[in-house]
From TrEMBL:
Organism: Pseudoalteromonas tunicata D2
PANTHER family given in the database record: ENTEROCHELIN ESTERASE-RELATED, FERRI-BACILLIBACTIN ESTERASE BESA
Signal peptide stretch: 1-19
Name of the protein in question: Esterase
Matches recorded under Pfam families: Esterase
Keywords: Signal
InterPro entries reported for this sequence: AB_hydrolase_fold (IPR029058), Esterase-like (IPR000801), Mycobacterial_A85_antigen (IPR050583)
Top-rank lineage group of the source organism: Bacteria
Transmembrane region(s): none
Length: 279
């Protein structure tokens, strides 16, 4: 009986200690940006093997990178890149960038009123600052990350909705900033088909050596707005696929909506853009 009591005592005093162990996904920090004129917060995830090796790692830049999206994305990435799911993709560093002014930084043109066929979809105080935000990434944040961490030449941008619009614009305007683009249900309806108008303005002379994966959702429940956004988005994606000689691709998720497609887009997009067999 004394041995049994002793065993229970050990168990009771041991379990609370185990229950209080912390599981850390990353760290939160910030960068004072001269280009943006503000302090820009960001979160960093380092893969499990980072401290145990001298390897270099791809870097994934995650837009709309609030805490919830950071946790969700990192969960998918770590599962796919470790033994959990048989190492299907490369271990990578993740830089998650939360918004300070979403409509300002992620849109490529100025609109006070965003209209579709005369209907006002939304109004904004600030828009059209995508070029400046892209310069912040290229000239300040990326160099800071490359200096601080062991990064490889592979660099991936992930954007959804307005973030997808920004990623698509960057792919078109400055494709070499990132080697790969994961573009999820972009807001192609922006500024009367902005993306396709800008692509057409290049007269087919745009040089895109980066690779892109486009994910599209079923937004037919939104009527003509949803159908048109899909039509313009897939038209742009097809142009990119042609311009990249087929190394880019697009995928349609008929059972997902704009608000639910992200998880499957992360899962499938990472396997396409960061396969473990490709180093």
């Amino acid at each position: 009986m004394k041995k049994l009591v002793s065993a229970f005592s050990i168990l009771l005093f041991t379990l609370p200690v185990l229950a209080e162990d912390s599981i850390l996904l990353g760290t939160s920090t910030s960068l004072e940006s001269k280009i943006m004129g503000e302090n820009r917060p960001y979160m960093v995830y380092l893969p499990p093997s980072y401290e145990k090796s001298e390897n270099t790692y791809p870097v994934i830049y995650l837009l709309d990178g609030d805490t919830h999206r950071f946790k969700g994305f990192v969960g998918v990435l770590e599962s796919l890149s470790t033994e959990t799911l048989e190492k299907q993709v490369q271990e990578s560093i993740v830089i998650s960038i939360p918004n300070t002014n979403r409509s300002r930084d992620l849109t490529p043109s100025y609109l006070r009123e965003w209209k579709f066929k005369g209907r006002v979809l939304d109004t904004f105080e600030q828009t059209g600052n995508a070029q400046q935000f892209a310069e912040f990434l290229q000239k300040e944040l990326i160099p800071a990350i490359d200096t601080k961490y062991r990064t490889s030449k592979k660099r991936l941008l992930v954007g959804e909705s307005f973030g997808g619009l920004f990623a698509a614009t960057t792919l078109l305007k400055s494709p070499s900033v990132f080697t790969d683009y994961l573009i999820i249900d972009p807001t192609s309806l922006w500024d009367n088909d902005y993306l396709n108008r800008e692509f057409s303005a290049t007269n087919g002379e745009v040089k895109i050596r980066s690779r892109a994966y486009f994910a599209f959702a079923d937004n037919s429940h939104l009527g003509e707005i949803g159908l048109t956004n899909y039509k313009w988005g897939t038209t742009f994606a097809s142009s990119v696929i042609d311009a990249t000689n087929g190394i880019s691709q697009q995928q349609y998720f008929e059972n997902e909506t704009h608000g639910t497609v992200a998880f499957l887009a992360w899962y499938n997009g990472l396997k396409v853009l960061l396969p473990a067999t490709e180093k």
